[in-house]
Each structure stands twice: as C-alpha cells, then as structure tokens.
C-alpha cells in the first residue's frame, strides 16, 4: 500500500466525515438565521456508503476518523454508524464533534457503540451571549450534555470555542476556569472566513497570542506542551501550576498548512483536501454507480495529489470556499 502523499510530501491519515449539513442551532459565523438551503436528503450518503468509503480510505492508510456535521446528532441512528466505523480494519481512532444540544439524551448510546473521544462546541457560559451567537436558547442542554459525558466516562472531552473579537473576550478566562475545574481541555479557534453571510473580516479575529496574554494575566503562566504531534491543528499548552490545558487552533495568525494530514468527506459525498478548497472530488456518483473500490481509491488519491500548499487567508489571493462551514463539515 502506498500512503496518501501529496505533491508537497504530506501524508494523509486523518479523515473527517460529515454526516449531515443540517443543524439545530444557527451560529452567526456559520449559518444564516433563516432560509438555510440544505442538501436534498437523497443526496446525503447512507451509512453503508460512508462505511464503504471509510474502508477504502483505511486501505490507503487513513487511521483516524472524526464525525462532524452540520450537527451530527440530528442524524438518526448515529450510534449504528459509530459501530460500523470502529469495526473498519485499520481504523485506530474515532472521535465526534457536536454542539451538545442533543448530547445528554444520546451520550450513553454513543458510548455503548464504542465512542470515547468527543469535542463539544461551546463559545460562552453566559446565557445571553450564547443566545446572541447561536440564536437559540439552549445553553442548559449543552451543559447537561457535557456533564453526561463526564459521568459516563468519556475521555478526553474537549470544548471548542470560536474566538470573535469584540464579542467573546469576557468568555476566554471563564471557559478556561470551567475546564480546569472539570479536567476538560478548552480549544480556542480563531474566527475563520467560512460563514454563509460574508461577515468575516480580519480585524474580527481574536488571535491566539491575544488569548494567551489574557489567560496568563488572569489565571497564570502557560507553557507549550512538548513533543506534541506536529500535524495536529491545535497548539496545546498547560498551566504551569499543573491544573488544566488549553489549545489554540490559529488558522489565521499561525497557519499550519505545511503539516496538514486531513481530508474531508462532505455529507453529499464529495472529497475535499482542505477546509478552504475551491474544488471537490465527487465520489457519490462512484459509490452509487457501481464503481470498484479501486476506482474510489483512485479518486481519493487524485484529490490528495491536487492539494495546494495552503489556504492563503493572509494573502490578497485568498478566495473563500463556495460552500459555508455547515455544508463542508466542521
């Protein structure tokens, strides 16, 4: 087996699988509040099609899977897919990213299916700011979902928080304290140009350096964790007092494109070599058209071979992707 290596020497062993473009909240930096255009249900891949794609990808060296959306927990029977994917030969790690609204009710079923690693999206612990960001009054349900995962025994549990300047500054420190008290790593994600309404502007990015300064001023010194996986999107830190960890996904201020090892499968069956990619590779037609596994593998290889060196967010050449985040997969 030849690994999935692109023209810049990057090996790809991490696949993010979106199971739906639908979501039960409306974060302003991702979706419009009304009149959202979703894929027709018949265009969305079945669990059997996703499993087959994952098996082919595993045969090419993919070892890590992450289930995303939209909001993956709105997809009925998700635990069944978890069981199928964990059983794929070669897959060593499977994780889920969710907004947490439906998590309390599904956490036990997903755990019983074999899920252990989970990332929960939460930008704020303040109810009014949560409502402003998500346009839904669901903070209590998210917190219930986090506590359910802690009680059941998930690990690690991580919280993802998008950092938008002049909005979430009051939340940076409280989230870190929340994580320190519960053994949860908080991951701050710089605001990226992936919204459906064109709201992103460079000055609205609260950078990793800004957040590190806030945390050190209010809580205490941080130190970068040594020997981390250089291909991981987050740069991880621990507090020097030994209590708690935080991470920063600094796609804007500290691009990590040269170490990227990820490919993406959209809910409607297209392979993307980058979150910001302009073009996609259609595999749904192959999966539904009687194509062989070799043909699907060839399509994956071709997609990876065409991968660019990076997204160029900080360049005048940057062009936002034609699809917003919820349609690509988080």
Structure in words:
- The protein has 10 helices and 12 strands.
- Strand 2, helix 2 and strand 3 (93-98) form a beta-alpha-beta unit.
- The chain has one domain (14-328): Aldolase class I (TIM Barrel), CATH 3.20.20.
- The model has no long low-confidence stretch (mean pLDDT 93).
- The chain starts with 13 loop residues before the first strand and ends with a helix.
- Strands 7-8-9-6-5-4-3-2-1-10-11-12 form a 12-stranded mixed β-sheet.
- The protein has 330 residues and is α/β, with parallel strands linked by helices.
- It is globular and about 60 Å long.
Overall pLDDT confidence: 93
Rounded to the nearest angstrom, the distance between the terminal CA atoms is 29 Å
Number of strands: 12
Number of domains: 1
Helical content class: 25-40%
Query: Under the CATH scheme, which class?
Result: Alpha Beta
Rounded Rg = 19 Å
Taking pLDDT < 50 over at least 5 consecutive residues as the criterion, the unreliable ranges are none
What is the fold named in CATH at topology level? TIM Barrel
Strand percentage, roughly? 15-25%
Main beta sheet: 12 strands, mixed
């Amino acid at each position: 087996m030849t690994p999935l290596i692109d023209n810049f020497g990057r090996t790809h062993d991490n696949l993010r699988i979106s199971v739906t473009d639908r979501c039960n909240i409306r974060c302003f930096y991702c979706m419009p509040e009304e009149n959202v255009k979703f894929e027709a249900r018949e265009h969305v891949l079945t669990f059997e099609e996703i499993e087959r794609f994952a098996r082919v990808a595993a045969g090419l060296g993919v070892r890590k899977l992450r289930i995303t959306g939209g909001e993956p927990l709105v997809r009925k029977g998700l635990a069944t897919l978890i069981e199928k994917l964990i059983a794929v030969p070669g897959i060593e790690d499977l994780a889920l990213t969710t907004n947490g609204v439906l998590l309390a009710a599904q956490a036990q079923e997903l755990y019983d299916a074999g899920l252990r690693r989970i990332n929960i999206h939460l930008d704020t612990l303040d109810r009014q700011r949560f409502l402003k960001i998500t346009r839904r009054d669901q903070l209590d349900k998210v917190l219930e979902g986090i506590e359910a995962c802690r009680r059941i025994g998930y690990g690690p549990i991580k919280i993802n928080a998008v950092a938008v300047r002049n909005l979430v500054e009051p939340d940076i420190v409280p989230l870190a304290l929340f994580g320190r008290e519960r053994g949860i790593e908080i991951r701050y994600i710089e605001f990226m140009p992936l919204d459906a309404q064109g709201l992103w502007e460079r000055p609205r990015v609260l950078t990793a350096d800004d957040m590190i300064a806030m945390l050190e001023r209010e809580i205490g010194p941080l130190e970068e964790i040594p020997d981390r996986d250089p291909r991981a999107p987050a740069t991880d830190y621990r507090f020097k007092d030994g209590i708690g960890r935080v991470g920063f996904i600094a796609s804007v201020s500290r691009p990590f494109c040269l170490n990227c090892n990820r490919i993406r499968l959209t809910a409607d069956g297209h392979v993307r070599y980058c979150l910001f990619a302009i073009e996609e590779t259609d595999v749904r037609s192959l999966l539904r058209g009687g194509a062989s596994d070799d043909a699907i593998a060839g399509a994956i290889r071709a997609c990876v071979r065409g991968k660019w060196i990076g997204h160029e967010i900080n360049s005048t050449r940057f062009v936002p992707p034609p699809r917003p985040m919820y349609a690509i997969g988080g």
